Amino acid sequence: MDHVSVVVDDLPAAMDFFTTLGMTLEGQMPVEGPWVDRICALEGVQVDIAMMRTPDGHGRVELTKFHSPALVGAEPAIAPPNTLGLRQIMFAVENLDDTVARLRALGAELIGEVVQYKDKYRLCYMRGPAGIIVALAEELF
What we know:
The protein is of the alpha/beta class. It is 19% helix and 40% strand. A hairpin with a 6-residue loop joins strand 3 and strand 4. It starts with a strand and ends with a strand.
């Protein structure tokens, strides 16, 4: 896998959110032109993208902010975790409580509760900018 793409309405807020998860900005640039229109099957595409790299250097998340055409909202806007389609990206974290606190300081919300799975993991879901859901997992072994 090369990367996962996430469409956001506030690129700086999304970049802060993923930076708080330990990712680093690999690059940022505007993208437009006939080739983008053709691949997206849209006309007049103008976007800004930010490519974020995971701490291990193997994974990337592309954050995409559309300027044109206008964003299209999903229904319901705050979809529950059992909604069809891509719902979350999971990140391994060293300290779940600290990570939750740092994300909450950016406006992220805890979905449900922090739970423990046997003696193996502490887990939770967090909702961030643009309704992005991330799962967090702290290994206990």
